[in-house]
Fold this protein.
Amino acid sequence: MDNFHLPDSSSIVSSIALIFLRQSSNGGNDASVFSKFMVTFLSQWCLDCHHYFLSQSYLLTATKSTFVKNFIDMSLLKDLEWRYATKKMNGQKIPQEKLDYILEAARMAPSSSGLQQYKVIMISDKALLERIRLVAYDQSQITDCSHLLVFAAWDSYSDERISNVFNYMMDERGLPHKTMDAYKQVILETYERAGQEWQSHHAAKQSYISFAMAIAAAAEKKVDATPIEGFLPEKLDELLNLNGSGYKSTVILPLGYREAEQDWLVNMKKVRTPKKSFITEMTLADVSDNVVLPTPMNLDAFVQKR
Ligand SMILES: Cc1cc2nc3c(=O)[nH]c(=O)nc-3n(C[C@H](O)[C@H](O)[C@H](O)COP(=O)(O)O)c2cc1C
């Protein structure tokens, strides 16, 4: 059982201490003390095991156990199977901890060069949601959701913007700011050559990765979500005062709970491109053999053309 461990003495001690602390402030009989001890003890143990999995290079250890591996694989796929683009929501509120979890998943998303060239605007104000619905083709999820997430991405790249992110990153890592200077120069030159429209598009693409993480996290927490591109971005930017802020809205995500009886999509089969057409494996034998490939000697010429 190299993936598991018994509760250690610190978890037993901390459970007892927690119980006595609570008892001394609340009072209580022996049976409730014992049951509370068991609950606290078991939850502490689970927490320990959870930390153990993470701290012991979880992936390396867990791959040895097909049980754990299948459980994890299945759990994400089951969540993705469960979720659907909810058409009718019931207005029920999401608990704060679930909302925080979804937002944290969005924040933890990877992004090109780690720039996180987007942000999330969160809206639950009903009066504002009514207005947003008007610029989103009257889609009812906008007003029937618990919270609406608006993903907004940088409209362009600049030395200042990139430096701010990299300087913060270096501060957090305790490294000198100049550590990233050479890399920053390379990406700045590439972005400048590509032009402002490309820059805005590039930043928007990064925001979709965060958006996807939020969708998956919502599914994990059994919170419904509707990915929505069906809105007028210029109007939404105007409404949210984004013009002149350096951000443009890219995509929106109402979070809430399904109103199953009024949702035509809820029981429909989930349809995806068959695996055979979706996944193509290639080897060198399948590809073109007359492409002029860059070498370290002529790489610059290729880069200049991008
Ligand atoms: C980027 C994006 C934009 C979408 N825009 C809308 C939208 O405006 N309104 C809507 O009801 N569904 C929208 N959808 C939902 C898709 O139609 C839906 O995800 C797709 O048909 C697959 O179905 P499923 O999500 O239920 O599995 C959007 C999905 C994505 C990923």
The CA atoms of residues 273 and 279 lie 9 Å apart. The chain is about 55% helix and 10% strand. Residues 9-64 form one domain.
